[in-house]
Amino acid sequence: MSEVTGSWLNDLPKVELHLHLEGSLEPELMFKLAQRNNIKLPFDSVEQIQEAYIFNNLQDFLDIYYQGANVLQHEQDFYDLTWAYLEKCHSQNVIHVEPFFDPQTHTDRGIEFSVVIKGITRALNDAQKQLDISSQLIMCFLRHLSEDAAFDTLTQAVPFIDKIKAVGLDSSEQGHPPEKFSRVYKKARELGLLTVAHAGEEGPADYIWTVINDLKVSRIDHGVRAVDDSALMLYLKKNSIPLTVCPLSNTRLKVFDNMSEHNILVMLEQGICVTVNSDDPAYFGGYMTENFIALADSLSLTKNQAIQLVLNSIEASFVDDIRKAEMRNLLESRIN
Ligand code: ADE
Ligand code: ZN
């Protein structure tokens, strides 16, 4: 039993730093967009889709995730996808988000880069005005594709560079070491972008060292395999390098067999800057609140730990000190 309740966790102001917009595509919206765009889905009902969401590893999930994204065709589709996620955030008191998008998933199907980014940023701007949710956008490269393809994507992003805060690296980790992207990351940094990368989700702790040393990341996405390397753990702690951890994702993709085996709170107690995030909530059974509740149910999360996890997210976010202070004040005012 945990000392925190679901409603306390829902009311807690929260910050999300690891969320793939394409992974927030709920089956209901998938059907609606398929109908609107005249696309035949290989499913007949929402229930059938949900039954298909049983995964043994990351690749099992990615195969279904890329297929689902096919229904996204027009600027309004990307707006609707992003807006639905932001409304969910609002209902769970998420006050700041730094979502990822995967342009190559769409440009490889003939959708213009501008269509994707205009739809997403229009929703992010509306959320700032109407829901008081601030945001920074992160553009990911698909690591199963070539570095040339990533360079091409970066070139397409240049006219919209003011709308992008950082680049990231996602998709199949095993067999796709991060150094393949060293040069394109260097170019991104020269363009003024920050960098993050998925590492140590299914791949080894070595990949975490590489994204730190070669890709010069400000944060590591997942990073749970860091515990295999004590020198790395020391380095992460000493240099306050944040990990964007995704508990429900990790159990759904069998990174951990059970939530009770998850290492996030062990790392927290060791002084590592771990944060809680939902990754692909439409596929993994929950958004921010559900991820916190999972930690309460299986790991007896305490109030102080929940608050520290949010403070870590605020510190790890890509906003200026004024917004960070504002978010800390809001958190303070809600927990007393
Ligand atoms: N793309 C969407 N979700 C992902 C994950 N958990 N790991 C790697 N790539 C992803
Ligand atoms: Zn991810």
Which key features would you list for this structure?
three-stranded parallel beta sheet; 11% strand; TIM Barrel; seven-stranded parallel beta sheet; globular; alpha/beta; 336 residues
Poorly predicted residue ranges: none
CATH architecture annotation: Alpha-Beta Barrel
- The H/E string reads HEHHHHEEHHEEHEHEHEHEHHEHHHH
What value does the Rg take, in angstroms? Answer: 19 Å
Total number of β-strand segments?
10
Return the average pLDDT rounded to an integer: 97
What is the beta-strand fraction?
5-15%
* Molecular shape: globular
Content-based structural category: alpha/beta
Query: Can you tell me the CATH topology?
Result: TIM Barrel
Domain count: the total is 1
Helix content range: 40-55%
The CATH superfamily is identified as Metal-dependent hydrolases
Euclidean distance between termini CA atoms: 22 Å
Provide a short characterization of the protein structure:
The chain is of the alpha/beta class and 336 residues long. It is built from 17 helices and 10 strands. Adenine is lined by residues 20, 23, 58, 65, 170-171, 198, 201, 249, 279-280.
